[in-house]
Write a structure and sequence with these properties.
It is built from 15 helices and five strands. By secondary structure, it is α/β, with parallel strands linked by helices. Strands 1-2-4-3-5 form a five-stranded mixed sheet. Strand 3 and strand 4 form a beta hairpin. It is elongated, with a radius of gyration of 28 Å.
Length: 367
């Protein structure tokens, strides 16, 4: 502890006890920074690297005033930061090569990934462009591995871990942090990867569907909003069908009144749309080149009325189309179709699923 410091607020001066950080308050440091109630004494040359915001900050003329950062009694205040995240950033400025190698090793764990997220966010804020690029590259490289681990853990219906809300909330927080970071830094590859992962996760837990709704609305992610609202709508209907009339999911989450109203309106539009979607795959002329049109029509007529398709509600256009795709994969009569026509038919269904997914956002758009 080094004594007190006073901060001016809109109401009064608030005095706090300041402490020197054990790791990054260096005896030969040349710039004192204050984050919360902690002082750091680091080297100006490192802070000024990469044409960072600190380089211009430290070059500002001070006149007759005592230069900010020159002592414990006159530190540079970094508002909006917390000590843990800022220490993670300072770590990369001072890390030795073998320490950096540990962070970039294939065995990525939550602690190291969290450190990289902190490094990236603060590098972006203070314009350390090369560090930001490096950390984003490392995160992106490991995201697919980490994301697969998250998805497989959560999607394993036989695992006791998935049943604990703590595990789900923990993974959800990680997905949220990565998506917000990608959006903040404008990193399209990381953002699209995390959207893909979240779409997998929300099909297994309504908690992730709610998270997807929140992120889609908060970050204005059109590609995620439609499928997120659709997933919540379908799972909420399943809850009501099981006798929960309060509009809560399996974890007791109340569904927002406005969101529920949007879903009810959207459900009606989707039911009307289903009648059109159920006919759209019958008009493809490309199957006629080998005389397979009649074979396809017979399949469509039979399978769209099968139990595996009809078990999905009228508004569940996606569920019905995916069920049709599975039926086509099992369809024995498909052997009578020409190889080219089978490929065309399979591609038709896949394309239609993608078209419906992309158009869902229009059904849930605010009127």
């Amino acid at each position: 502890m080094v004594g007190g410091g006073c901060e001016q607020t809109s109401v009064s001066r608030v005095c706090v006890e300041l402490v020197r950080d054990e790791t990054y308050y260096m005896r030969d440091g040349s710039c004192v920074l204050q984050v919360e109630n902690t002082l750091f004494n680091v080297h100006r040359t490192l802070l000024s690297k990469d044409s960072s915001l600190f380089s211009s900050m430290l070059e500002l003329p001070q006149g007759d005033k005592v230069a900010e950062g020159s002592s414990d009694s006159c530190p540079i205040h970094l508002n909006g930061e917390n000590v843990v995240e800022f220490k993670n950033f300072l770590w990369v400025l001072y890390a030795l090569p073998h320490e950096v190698c540990l962070v970039t090793s294939p065995q990525m764990d939550l602690e190291r990934l969290s450190r990289l997220i902190d490094i990236t966010r603060i590098s972006f804020k203070y314009h350390f462009k090369s560090i930001e690029t490096w950390s984003l590259d490392v995160i992106t490289e490991h995201t697919s591995v980490t994301a697969t681990s998250i998805a497989s853990t959560t999607m394993n219906a036989h695992s006791a871990v998935v049943t604990t809300p703590q595990a789900i909330a923990s993974n959800g927080a990680l997905v949220s942090r990565l998506m917000r970071l990608a959006q903040l830094c404008g990193h399209e590859k990381l953002l699209s990867t995390m959207i893909s992962v979240l779409r997998q996760l929300m099909s297994c837990s309504i908690r992730y569907a709610h998270l997807a709704m929140t992120l889609a609305d908060g970050l204005d992610l059109r590609s995620l909003r439609g499928v997120a609202y659709f997933e919540v709508m379908q799972k909420s209907n399943a809850v009501v069908a099981r006798g929960n009339s309060r509009g809560e999911d399996d974890h007791g989450n109340d569904i927002d009144k406005d969101a529920r109203s949007t879903m009810l309106d959207s459900e009606g539009r989707l039911i009307v749309s289903h009648q059109q979607k159920s006919r759209l795959l019958t008009g493809y002329s490309r199957l006629s080149m080998h005389g397979c049109t009649q074979c396809w029509l017979e399949f469509w007529k039979e399978k769209t009325k099968s139990d595996s398709v009809l078990q999905h509600g009228l508004a569940d256009v996606l569920g019905r189309l995916r069920a049709v795709a599975k039926e086509f994969g099992r369809w024995r009569s498909a052997t009578y179709m020409h190889t080219d026509c089978r490929a065309i038919a399979r591609k038709m269904i896949q394309d239609k699923v993608k078209i419906v997914e992309d158009s869902l956002v229009d059904y849930f758009a605010d009127e």
